[in-house]
Amino acid sequence: MAFRTGVIQLNSGADRQKNLTDAALLMQQAVERGAQMLVLPENFSFQGQSEADKRHHAETLEDSPSLDFLRDFSSQQGVWIVGGSIPLVADDAHLVTNSCFVVDNQGAIQGRYDKIHLFDVNLGGRPFRESSVIQPGNQVVVVDTPWGKLGLTICYDLRFPELFRALVDAGAQMIAVPAAFTLNTGRDHWELLLRARAVENLAWVFASDQWGKHPGGRSTYGHSMVVEPWGTVVGRCSDGVGITVVDVDLGVCEVSRKKIPCLDHRVGFLSGKQ
Questions:
Q1: pLDDT (tens digit per residue) in 143-198
Q2: 42 catalytic residue (yes or no)
Q3: What does the alpha-carbon distance between residue 241 and residue 128 come to, in Å, rounded to a whole number?
Q4: What is the largest CA-CA distance in the chain?
């Protein structure tokens, strides 16, 4: 099954309405180029001074300008959207979830994924502590689309191949990676990890990243891309905001998996399958 996807690269800040307006302009450009599925980056509607800012800008399912934006755009334009991520009020009142919604071409929610792996690291003396703000998810999520099964991840999840393998075990032929990948790590690891995840799982990877400088001094790498199952980058954004629109043929998954049937060659006690 073939279709066209558009990956959107943004430079989101602390002004939610501006972020949504900027996103809509690029999304419209992708639609005009024939995109049937759009992929937005992590924090597409809000990138604040710090992780703690997400508590004060958290939305709810009942009152979510960001989700309303996705649903309105998708129904008006007739496209599917992988909605990057939105901070939502969590069960714990002191935390939020980092949630990615998939919305179909009629504006209906078809899936929600809450980021599992949280970015708790110290880079060059700058600490990142997502766990102080974010309640991690615990569910592997695969969404049925008209073209095939789509697995969901967010940013730091990219470093955990077991999640990607679980998605493929659940039937995923394509995997979305909305991200706000840091500039320092992005230079060295972003493309390497994306291509590895594609080749390991012989699946399409749609990676939408934030780019540039953001409030609070954070810098993100950009270079959003689409990687096909053989590991070739077939679409890429350069520096700056922008889009890449790519024709996706899911038949390539089947062909690649027949060429190298490594998914069938896993040893039981290593794969968890007896």
A1: 999 999 999 999 999 999 999 999 999 999 999 999 999 999 999 999 999 999 99
A2: yes
A3: 24
A4: 52
How many helices (H) and strands (E) the chain has is answered by 8, 17
| Amino acid making up residue 38 | L
Whether 253 contacts 203, CB under 8 Å: yes
Express as a percent the part of the chain with pLDDT over 70. 98
Q: How confident is the model at residue 126, as a pLDDT? A: 76
pLDDT at position 269 over 80: no
Check if the beta carbon of residue 265 is closer than 8 Å to that of residue 273. Answer: no
Q: What is the pTM of this model?
A: 0.96
Say which of 54, 59, 100, 115 is annotated catalytic. Answer: 115
Report the 3 state secondary structure along 66-116. HHHHHHHHHHHHCCEEECCCEEEECCCCCCEEEEEEEECCCCCEEEEEECC
| Residue 71, domain CATH | 3.60.110.10
Which domain does 109 fall in, by range? Answer: 2-271
30 with 245: CB under 8 angstroms? yes
pLDDT over threshold 90, residue 49: no
Told to judge if 115 belongs to the known catalytic residues of this protein, a careful annotator would answer yes
SS (HEC) of 164-193: HHHHHHCCCCEEEEEECCEHHHHHHHHHHH
Count of domains in the chain?
1
Contacts of 270 (CB under 8 A, 6+ apart): none
Question: Strands 174-179, 149-152: parallel, antiparallel or unpaired by DSSP?
Answer: parallel
Which among 51, 59, 100, 155 is annotated as catalytic? 155
**250, 144 in Cβ contact below 8 A?**
no
Select which of 42, 51, 130, 228 is catalytic. Answer: 42
State yes or no: is 237 an active-site residue. no
